[in-house]
Every structure is written in C-alpha cells, then in structure tokens.
Amino acid sequence: MDKAPRAPLVWPRAGASAAMRTFVEQRQPFEVLLPVDFNHVLFTRLCPRARPGMPESVDVAGGPELLRRIADIRGLEGFADLLSMEEMRTAAVRLRTPSPCIIFDFPVCDTPERHEGDRLDEAR
C-alpha cells in the first residue's frame, strides 16, 4: 500500500535543508516548493534557447546533474549539499514551473535482484 503523500517542504523555510537530507538518507520521495520569484531564472537557465514571448514554463526530469544546475542559481545553493550524499547517485529529480517545485524520487532498488527459483525464459 502506498504511503499518504506528505506535505511539501517550502524553500527556504527553516528546517527545510535538514528535512531534505533526512528524506534523502531514507530514500523517501519528497517535494520542495520554491518561491515564485525563481520561475524566471529557472526558465532562462534551463531553457536558454527558448523563443522570446514563450510562456515561461518548465517541466524537466533528470538526476543529480539537474540538481547541480539548479544549485548553481543564487538563492538555491543549499541544494548542492545533497549532491555529496551517496543516496543521490540514483535519485530522480524533476523540476516543474511556473509554480516552481522540485520533486525527488528514488528507485525501489538500484539493480534488479535475482532470487533462487527465478529463471530467465529460454527461447524454444
């Protein structure tokens, strides 16, 4: 059964950084809401080839490399602290705007496990 969704963290509210580290250590999915003021800079940094007049909307997915690009933005440098955590190596990161939100998720397992009794289907 899926857990009930938790309330998103709000950046840069006190305690958000510590809570993010805890969720990453536990490999628990979470969301971080950013102030709307970051919408324009996120759009211009992540969509540098956008045509003038385009709606400033972003929906990009990646991993630690996306988080690194986000952490390069003034005011979001605190996200760089997560990059040194081993658990972030396989994290999925998604950024959505115009109401900026960063969504973190973690795969159930890093590699498929093989259990005794499992067998690969053979071509006949």
Q: Would you write up a description of this structure?
A:
There is one protein chain. This protein has 124 residues and is an alpha+beta fold. The chain has one domain (9-105). 24% of the residues lie in helices and 16% in strands. It has 4 helices and 5 strands. A 5-stranded mixed sheet has the order 1-2-5-4-3, covered by helices on one side. Mean pLDDT is 84; it is low at 111-124.
Helix content: 10-25%
Portion in beta strands: 15-25%
**How is the main sheet built?**
5 strands, mixed
* Count of DSSP-assigned helices: 4
Radius of gyration based on Cα positions: 18 Å
First and last CA, distance: 38 Å
- What general outline do the C-alpha atoms trace? globular
Summarize the helix and strand pattern as letters: EHEHEHHEE
* Unreliable sequence segments: 111-124
Count of the separate structural domains: 1
* Main structural class: alpha+beta
How do the strands line up in the largest sheet?
A: 1-2-5-4-3
Overall pLDDT score: 84
Number of E-type strands: 5
Brief summary:
This protein has four helices and five strands, in the order E-H-E-H-E-H-H-E-E.
